[in-house]
Specification:
Two copies of one chain form a homodimer. By secondary structure, the first copy, chain A, is mainly α. In chain A, 65% of the residues lie in helices and 4% in strands. Chain A has twelve helices and three strands, in the order ααβααββαααααααα. In chain A, a hairpin with a 3-residue loop joins β2 and β3. In chain A, α2 packs across α4, α6 runs antiparallel to α12 (227-248) and α11 packs antiparallel against α12. Chain A binds a DNA duplex through α4.
DNA sequence: GTGATGCAAAAGTCTGACTTTTTGAGTACG
DNA sequence: CGTACTCAAAAAGTCAGACTTTTGCATCAC
């Protein structure tokens, strides 16, 4: 009956939430089976049976059915009578589902996945920045400038974690300010990519000063409403990200 | 069968599959409740109760629970004990889920939705075309040329339906040939947009000859491996699509 | 070989009982 | 007067079992 009145007011981090054991049986099974499928542990064409899965995970059939339904809605599997639950080919998966993205980024082909997403980014963000220059509110311009300044301030002295926070915030604001909901919803993906770069792909050195400058100039361009310049500058940032990726993990040999 | 095999023997599209009536109780309820939510019939913050829904739709609680689980995985609702199933704010929806896209396109704010998606297209497709110029196989080049020729052949004489088929196929091939799975998966979205233009937004006249020519030239550029030209030409096509949209449904007044 | 027939496997559905979490009202205590 | 504690009810969550429906496959008749 103790009260945890010390150290009690910490805000639970994302990892805490996702790692928590308390999310219900259904979510736990999903988080076990989902990654297994996306990792190719059950290759496309594999057939699973609901009852068998229920036994394996030691849950009732109702729970397992709900899990299968969700996997089905992600197009990871297809359920057919008398056949069972079939793993669908990769090309049919809902690769834009944030959950699927997370599972795949956590799995073995993380590099491939990271490349796909970075290319996607390089297509989206310049256009988003152009739109932001036209549509950003005063508050968004201010936020953008603040982020850029934060990046400058933390760009030296191995303060990578602090830098990351500002970097993520910057790109989120741009995507939001574009006024396009499809763009805005990619904020999480970008956050995931940037975090991955800092944490997994081992950034030994401080961030590229040229990149930092570019961010500052994008903020300027947006503030001034110069769409073309904002787009061009963001395109440069994207080019940089692609180049960086080529160095870390060269692309598959071109056909 | 007449004409090109690769057009006639195409795999059944998503829409085909999902329109079928025989999909089981669960899917039918989902297709009733999902659109209702995305249409704003239950505004964000509304609280539903599983049992009540089960009664309303005349299905068992198990079926309704599975429906709720799927809606939850789309981030349309959140389910909490003792409180019920809450409709989440629009900004949190998984707007890239093909099912959600279809529901929203079928609903009231179709124009808004169509604009978001067209802007997305205008960002993606030029980049995809550039990549396609680098990566397309001989078969894909051939398919692309065939599509372009088909577009030319059906561009006059009010053969809009036939034209649409070739147009959709063209863009699908480009997205596929880009070699990026994130791009490839947008084929359905593009198909939806193009079909919408032909069917809903009333194309009175034959397609713009300039657009047709641009498609032919994109096919050329890809075949010749000229990435920059393929990208620039596709950007022109996208510009055209955006302009067309501005005429049909002017954008909200810029702030 | 071809087509009809029937069996069985697996998903789909329904029902009722039970558990767990959470909220909000009531209550005691300072 | 307000704070903190208790408690009961509400709703989702879980489980088990029985039944239905579809459908692949093997068998059999022609």
């Amino acid at each position: 009956m103790q009260k945890s009145d010390f150290l009690s007011t910490r805000v639970p981090s994302y990892a805490d939430v996702m790692t928590a054991q308390a999310r219900g049986l259904h979510a736990r099974v999903l988080d076990s089976l989902g990654p297994a499928i996306t990792a190719g542990e059950y290759p496309p064409g594999s057939v699973l049976r609901t009852d068998e899965l229920a036994q394996r995970f030691e849950v009732s059939r109702s729970v397992m059915r709900e899990v299968v339904r969700v996997l089905e809605s992600m197009h990871l599997v297809a359920s057919r009578r008398r056949v069972g639950v079939t793993v669908r080919p990769t090309e049919e998966w809902n690769v834009y589902d944030p959950q699927v993205i997370r599972w795949r980024l956590a799995g073995a082909d993380r590099p491939r996945q990271l490349r796909s997403l970075t290319v996607l980014r390089s297509a989206i963000e310049p256009v988003a920045a152009g739109l932001a220059a036209r549509n950003a509110t005063a508050e968004q311009c201010a936020a953008l400038t603040e982020c850029a300044l934060g990046m400058v301030a933390t760009s030296r002295g191995r303060r990578l974690e602090e830098y990351l926070v500002h970097d993520v915030a910057f790109h989120r604001v741009v995507l939001d300010a574009s006024g396009n909901e499809m763009f805005a919803r990619l904020g999480d993906v970008v956050a995931e990519i940037l975090a991955g770069r800092t944490h997994h792909d081992v950034m030994f050195e401080d961030p590229d000063p040229a990149a930092v400058t570019l961010h500052v100039r994008v903020a300027e361009a947006v503030r001034e409403g110069d769409a073309d310049r904002a787009e061009a500058l963001t395109r440069e940032i994207a080019e940089g990200a692609l180049k960086e990726l080529d160095i870390l993990a060269p692309p598959p040999a071109t056909r």
